[in-house]
Structures are given as structure tokens and as C-alpha cells.
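dumping these here so i dont lose them again. two proteins, back to back, each one seq then C-alpha cells. dont judge the mess
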Amino acid sequence: MSHEPPASDGVHAAIWLRSSYSGGQGDCVEVADGIPAFVPVRDSKRPAGPVIRFGPDAWRAFVAHLG
């Protein structure tokens, strides 16, 4: 896991997705899709501020644990 990926890695131009479970309250995280090397995650209230990157295997394990 790392913070603040460089602008050249496509994260800043990515399309960010927010869970439908957030209910529009603004207290949620967003995940960018379509970047095969890692899964970027950010705080929806701070779209310009740090991005945490998870490896694909770590992200799959996290999501599987939620279900």
C-alpha cells in the first residue's frame, strides 16, 4: 500500500466510483476502476487529497471479506 501516486499513472484522470450504499451522506470512499496494476481508493470528501493504492490481490481479499 502506498500514498499519492504520481500524476502520470492515470489516477487523476480516472473515473471514480462511489458505493450505492453511501446514501449520499458524503462519508464514504471512492474507488477508481480500469487501472490494472493497482486499485486506487480515496476519501470522497477529499478528491484531490491522498490516494491509497492496493494491489489487486489485496483488494480482492478485502472485498471477499466484506461479503
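---- next one ----
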Amino acid sequence: MPDFKIQHITKYSYEGMVRDSANQIVLYPIKDEYQDVTHHELNITGNPVVDTHIDYYGNEIGSFTYSEPHSVMVINSKLSVTTRQRPLPVTDIFPDQQWEYLKHIQYMVPYIDFLKQEYFEGLPELQVIVEQERAHDDTPFQIALRFCGYVYQNFEYIKGVTTVETTLDEVWKLKAGVCQDFAHILMVMLRLLKIPARYVSGYICTNSSTMRGEGATHAWAEAYIPDYGWLGIDPTNNCIANETHVRLAVGRNFSDCSPVKGVYKGTSGHKLEVAVSVDDDESTFTSIDDKAHHDNAIEHRATDNTAKNSYQRYMEIIQQQQQQQQQ
């Protein structure tokens, strides 16, 4: 049973003084038979009272308001989590029976939200790919793994070319992005075959330089498999999400699981910095300023047009390459 100590720091720096910062945080890990939270310490600038509730999808949500004028706000979450390996689905059940079961549940309340398809211009093209990738005798489990491999092999992992506001059309045109983009594309593919799929936010805790997504919050998808339940699938790393993936929340998409979001009164300009570290030593809990001295420790998320322009620049490079090939 792996034990992980996780520190997740979110820092907002404002161009001027702001006040009445009202925020929602989704920083409380899921507690179930495969994940125990042995310690959770939450420190927020100004020590505001945090009210918590359970949302429609079973996530614990915190809400707070920091009313005093301030130019910096830091949310520091320290976790100790023990995970357990989950057994994998068996593949000896007749595929036809599993697909019939999925037809039976598609109008049931627990699954309806996870079957709703977001339309985008590339959907018909992706539908063709889904049919091409599918084998007649595949089980839903086998399909989920094949689709995971397709996203991993056909989308390039590039930080900075997308933001949380990037649309599916933009991701589809780029054929690139980060973990949240990979998860969204995989969910579209699963839902096209009426397999319920949901978005998962959390952390990847492998301490391996070969795994993508460390040093920041991570995202993957879960597919509902008959006679099994929800299976975590990580298309960013082409693997099953198991005891090395710590789950924070589940939902229809990123917007249901955003770790921190809010509004405030004051100047519009601000910078968001996020740092995540995973270790088995309590002494590693530190401050965001200390982490800033380590490479790749801070994930900068632009709130102006910088990140959006990175998408535009990437598209311009692709267009230039295409033009050169045509000449």
C-alpha cells in the first residue's frame, strides 16, 4: 500500500490591491476503499473560514471569502494519502452481454451526465476513427484501452499550447495539448460508443521522470465497465490509473473538477502559479518561494492572452510547414 505526502500550493499575485475574493476549492481527496486520507492540512492567506459540502457527483467542495485588501493569496494544501491497488476487470464475460448492459443503463440517472456528448466540428471525423479502431468482438474494457492508446499515440504532449479554456475543436486541430485535453478527447471517443466516461482530477505519484504530469495537478478519465465499475485510464501516459494516481474529484469535464476558481473585486491583472510535490518525507513540505528555485516546480498559468497566443503561434508554425511542403 503506497503512502504519499503531497503538497499542492496555489498562489495568486495581483497587480494591485484586491478584496472580497470569493473562492471554491476542490482539494479534498476522494475517500473510499482504495484511497485513505490520513492527514489533510489546509492553510490559506488570511485564515478565512472554509465551508464544505458534497456536490452532486460526490466530491467534497470548499468555499471561502477573503474580504481584507490583499495583493497576494496563497492556498497551501498538505496531504498524506494511502492508496491500494484495484483489481482489473476480467475479460471472460461475453462482449454482447456487456454492450447490452450499457444500452440498459444509458438512461439511468447515475450515468446520463457521463454520456452527454459535446458537439464540435471534428466530431464526425472522430466518429469514423472510433469505428475504425473498434473490433467486433471487443469488450468495453478492451475498447477503453485501445482508445487510450490511440490518444497517446496520435496527440503530442506539449505544455503551453492549450489552456483550460481551449475548445475541443482547437485540441483536435492541434493534435496536441496536456493531460486535461487528452482526457477530454478520450471521453468523447468512449461516449460515442455509449460507454459512460467521466473526468478525474488528481495527482500522479510515481517519482518517475518518464511519466508525464508530475509537478502539477493531473487529469485522466474513467470509463464505466459492466460488472466492474469505474476504471481509471490515463491517456497522457497510456496506462491504467491505479495506486499511483491519487483522485481529488470526478465530473463531466474540467469545469466540474477545477481545483481552485473564484472571483474578486479589484484590478483585473493577476498571475497564477501552481506547485505540486510528492514525497514520503514530511520535511519536503515548504513554501512556494522555496519551490521556485527548483526547475519545473512551478506551473505558470497565464490569465491574459499569453497562453492563447501560444496556441496561435503553434498553428502558424503548422501552417508555415504545410505551405513549405506545397511549394
